[in-house]
Each structure stands twice: as C-alpha cells, then as structure tokens.
Amino acid sequence: MNTSPKQAAAQAALELILPQLKREMVLGIGTGSTANCFIDLLAAHKQAFAGAVASSEQSAARLAAQGIALYDLNDLAQLDFYIDGADEADPNLCLIKGGGGALTREKIVAATAKTFVCIAEAHKRVEVLGAFPLPVEVIPMACAYVMRELTQLGAKPLKRADVVTDNGNWIIDAAGLAITQPLALEAQVNAITGVVESGLFASRRADILLLASHTGVVHLECPSKG
Ligand SMILES: O=C(CO)[C@H](O)[C@H](O)COP(=O)(O)O
C-alpha cells in the first residue's frame, strides 16, 4: 500500500517522539485528517505513555476508539508534546489553523505544550500566510460586528455556513489577507470584542514542522524568536 504524504508526516512525528515517550506522559493531540493519521499510528504504542488531551470532540472520539486514555487539561501541568496539522505554515513556522474549526482548543492545548510538532503536506508551506482564509471563532451575537471589523483590517470575511464549534460558537473565514506581520495581526484580530480566538498561530508557533511530499519528509525547526 502506498503511503500518503499525510501518513508520512504522521509517521515522522511518531518516530520523533517515540524515543522520548514515558509511561506517565500525556500527549496533546490536534484535529484534522493529518492528526487522525497520527492518532491511528500512535495507537500501537499506547502502552508507552499515559494518554492524551484532545483539541476537539472529534479527536477525542477517535482517540477513545483506539483505546487511548483521555485526560482533562485542567488536571495536568505542562504537556511535553502537542502534535497537530496546519492549513498554512510560513518560514518562521507561524501557522494558519482552524480549517476544521477547532482552532481555539488547538491553541489552548498548544499553549501548554513544551514542543509543538506540526505535521503537514509540503504544499502547506508558503512564503506569506493568508491565501488560506484565516478562521476566526466568534461569539454568535458578535458575528456581524466582527465581520465589519475584519473588513476594516482588509479582509473579506465570510461566516462559515452551518458550523457550530465545540465551544458553541461560530467561525468567520477572513479571506484576502497577506499576513506579513503575523504577531501584530494576531493581536489585532484577538482584540476585536466578540472574537474568541483567531487561527493565526504566531505568539505560539510550531517548534518543529514536518513537511511531507511523495519524495520524503523535510524537518524544519523554528528560527530563534525575535
Ligand atoms: O487546524 C486544523 C483543524 O482545526 C487542522 O489541523 C488543519 O485544518 C489541517 O487539517 P488537515 O490535516 O485535515 O489538512
């Protein structure tokens, strides 16, 4: 059977963390098709660690189906690893995430992890973030207001149809942004009243990016912060 790039990225992440797993370790696990590949590969090693914190109900269900114990983040101190996919990654390993709508919980779990290992297909690597519309989770009653504010920032916002997040909120996809200053834009978007979280991962970017294509996996590390 041919291995897909998503499976190759997941396999590379597994090989990276396997030697570091400890019986008491709890892993942070993301959401999406690439994270699903990782969950399925991880299942064979579930005796080697304690369990996982999931970034969505969907991932929690998949982890449970694989017999991996689920933990509540509030019962834990710092996690060692967070493994998740992305929609875009720039040269500084800033990311756009939230294509699957799980961006807020993803950012929370990533914030508590020592090392964020991002796994993605090679085409997700871009010079400037923003060709993929930036997902923004909003309190439903603030949706129209937040869309107007995002328009002021130069975006073309669109409410994602028929989506309610695990937190009971809505998602706005903000298209048309050329994100040359990810840290600044993340702060601006998150400062809009009614925004719960943006899918711009700049204040907490990936530490390691494993980019897979049919020709192999490239391992990139976060350049020094500055
Ligand atoms: O942020 C996410 C979900 O909210 C995903 O990580 C992102 O959308 C990538 O998904 P996939 O691995 O299916 O390409």
TrEMBL record:
This protein's UniProt keywords: Isomerase
Catalytic machinery residues: 106 (proton acceptor)
Transmembrane region(s): none
Reactions mediated catalytically: aldehydo-D-ribose 5-phosphate = D-ribulose 5-phosphate
Protein name, UniProt field: Ribose-5-phosphate isomerase A
Binding site for substrate: 31-34, 84-87, 97-100, 124
GO cellular component, one term: cytosol
Organism listed in the record: Ventosimonas gracilis
Subunit structure: Homodimer.
InterPro entries: NagB/RpiA_transferase-like, Ribose5P_isomerase_typA_subgr, Ribose5P_isomerase_type_A
Listed pathway(s): Carbohydrate degradation; pentose phosphate pathway; D-ribose 5-phosphate from D-ribulose 5-phosphate (non-oxidative stage): step 1/1
Signal peptide positions on this chain: none
Function in brief: Catalyzes the reversible conversion of ribose-5-phosphate to ribulose 5-phosphate.
Enzyme Commission number(s): 5.3.1.6
Enzyme class per UniProt: isomerase
GO MF annotation: an example: ribose-5-phosphate isomerase activity
UniProt-listed GO biological process terms: D-ribose metabolic process; pentose-phosphate shunt, non-oxidative branch
Family listed: Belongs to the ribose 5-phosphate isomerase family.
